[in-house]
Design goal:
With about 230 residues, the chain is of the alpha+beta class. The chain has one domain. About 15% of the residues lie in helices and about 25% in strands. The protein is globular and about 50 Å long. Keywords: Carbohydrate metabolism, Glycosidase, Hydrolase, Polysaccharide degradation, Secreted, Signal. Pfam families: Glyco_hydro_75. One of its GO terms (molecular function) is hydrolase activity. Its main location: secreted.
Amino acid sequence: MRVQSLTLAAASAALLAPTTPPAAHPQPTVWRESTVSAADLLAGVSDCTPVSRGRYRRDYGSPANIPVCGTRDVVFWKADMDIDCDGRPGPRCNVRTDPYFAASTAYPQSDGRPLSAERLPFIVVPAPSRRWDYRDHGIGGGSVVAVVYRDRVRYAVVGDAGPQGIIGEASYATARALGIRADPHGGGAASGVTYIVFKNTKVSPIEDHAAAVTEGERAAKRFATGSRADGR
């Protein structure tokens, strides 16, 4: 990733990288195509009513021009995608492959271990600040997210928190599923990614991706239907 995520464990844990060579590629997450189209979801987020008190940067040094927007049912932002490899070390995500690697995530899985960025699709939200606090909008660890890139829709969960002034980051597994280069050192997408977080949703355990897809489909259908009814 190009910015270091905020984590709850000590950074020294990052030294626990695997000793085996990164030859084997992690098993890909099994995705099924969303029955709700990218066009239907994007139609519902075409207009922005800001819910953040200020705007975010894509990366350090870039302009602060990205608001967090909201509707009755979702919050969303349109940004780039940096690659988050933090969490449980693996062949593709470790201290050797990612210069900012940290072996922890803001939200652990049900057995107390960090999430696996290689295997679990999740996104990174900015740490709470006066600019915006995601917790005030029915969002927390395990909240369901639709990530839209070009004509693809993939479902993920909120799994990590990053710097207070930066937005636009998701796990290695999320990038792979969207066809985005998942290299934590120079991969990602420069623009064109829409993150739609469904309020008051929660997957438990957080690592149950099949449950995230099921709940994501349900929430996306409700949102798309409601958007059409409202004329958005």
